[in-house]
Amino acid sequence: MAPTGGGGYCPGTGAGDIHPDMATTEHVEGTQSQAAADHARKIVSERGIEFLFAQFVDMHGKPSAKLVPAHHIDDLLTEGAGFAGFAAGDIGQRPHDPDMIAIPDPASLTILPWQPNVARFACDVTVEGEPWPYCPRTILRNALARAQATYGLQPKMGVELEYFVLRRREDGGLEVADERDTLDLPCYDMRALTRNLDFVSQVAKAVTELGWDNYATDHEDANGQFEQNFQYDDVLATCDRAVFFRYMVETLAQQRGLIATFMPKPFAHLTGNGCHFHFSLWRDGENAFERDPGEDPRGLGLSELAYQFIAGLKAHAKAYIAVTAPTVNSYKRLVVGAPASGATWAPAYISYGYNNRTQMLRIPAPGRIEDRTVDGSCNPYLAATAMLAAGLDGIERRLDPGDPNSANLYELPEEMREAQGIELLPANLLDATRELERCSVVREALGKTRDGDYVDYFIKVKRREWQAAHEQITQWELDRYLQLF
């Protein structure tokens, strides 16, 4: 069964004075949740599922879980699974805090294709019966609810997750698993794809079996790098799938004695791993971003709403990049300069344009916007929340993104770029967190916690990460400075 996204269980706030419209909404959502729970029970019974993962993620998108025997499904769906949150990663818990309870979203039931007696539920975290404000999935659900309530819009999203398949050498170093994958221009190489067909076809069939519809697999621009695409869906469903996809690919690689990594830049001389987000907003079943290219003065097939969304992304790009490219390593991928195959295809400029991969925001087809800054280390729930908030601010303020850019920004001289007002993204994680700290739009979207704004908690964790990396003495420093003076 594929996750169907949307809906899902959300702990109530108890009885009280409820607006009649809200009461109707809560009744509908409760009915949908009950139907999803009943359907999940039916699938578990009919498919002979023996164990269930109750899975959640921390700030970094790391999946944590408990394995629950399937005959306890009723307990799991109604009471959740308990965790000592402080041990689970950066999710806002201290050693003396009460247990976190992971409450399954019954609509997210996902049967493991390689072990069909086991399934996973994506969970929302609660503490003492209340939604936990540090839970990334809860943060996104709140953002989606605001988009619906305020604008009547339903965000949808597709993702492109790139990864490397590696092996560890006897000396502990890493190398591309396919020893014959050595071309200087390996992108779309049919022979390399064929040599790895057993693995990538296993992943492709698993994705389709899940109901996500794998529609393409390709060898990417770096040696040992692949991308396997699946259809877009509601944002929550897509984020659930992105978390599971990373887990699945890594697991299937480990079963072969290999390593699959979504790390943004594992090799300095090879292209990095992106996780491009494709956004659209829908209303009443129609794509509110799309119109006939002939009716669009800019010719991209986008509505005015879409252009306002783009303007919001541009206005807040320097801030939300801290969330979409959230690691020290991310900024080794986002570099200024002309690309060469095996170097980078990532943007470093705040710009948008038609089907032009040198732009940060690319319009590959009418009705959707691709952000190419997002990388494989992102927490998809937080990244989607930040991008949605930025775009909706553009709609709220009716911002104008300016004319689309058709230039090759990798080769555009700096003085021409500056004359066109094209700004650079932050060059490192520390600078990105400084921009994020000043952004009230993303700050509000990520919400408040018991200790203040979530964004301050996020920044604190990321600056510790930056400091730990900064304190390392690298081989490059030794080679450059040891006897320079």
Radius of gyration from the CA trace? Answer: 23 Å
Please identify, by name, the CATH architecture of the largest domain.
2-Layer Sandwich
Could you name the CATH class of the largest domain? Answer: Alpha Beta
Q: Please describe the biggest sheet, giving its number of strands, its sense, and whether it closes into a barrel.
A: 11 strands, mixed
For this structure, the CATH topology of the largest domain is Creatine Kinase, Chain A, domain 2
- Percent of residues in helical segments? 25-40%
The helix tally amounts to: 14
Shape: globular
Task: Spell out the CATH superfamily of the largest domain.
Answer: Glutamine synthetase/guanido kinase, catalytic domain
* Global mean pLDDT: 91
**What's the domain count?**
2
Strand content: 15-25%
Q: Give the uncertain stretches in residue-range form.
A: 1-28
Structure description:
This protein has 14 helices and 20 strands. Strands 8, 9, 10, 11, 12, 13, 14, 15, 16, 17 and 18 form an 11-stranded mixed beta sheet that branches. Mean pLDDT is about 90; it is low at about 1-30. It has helices at about 20-45, 75-80, 135-150, 190-195, 195-210, 235-255, 305-325, 330-335, 380-395, 415-420, 430-435, 440-445, 455-470, 475-480; strands at about 50-55, 65-70, 80-85, 100-105, 110, 120-125, 130, 155-170, 175, 215-220, 225-230, 235, 260, 275-285, 285, 350-355, 360, 370, 450, 450-455. The chain folds into 2 domains: about 20-135, Ubiquitin-like (UB roll) (Roll), CATH 3.10.20; about 150-455, 2-Layer Sandwich (Creatine Kinase, Chain A, domain 2), CATH 3.30.590.
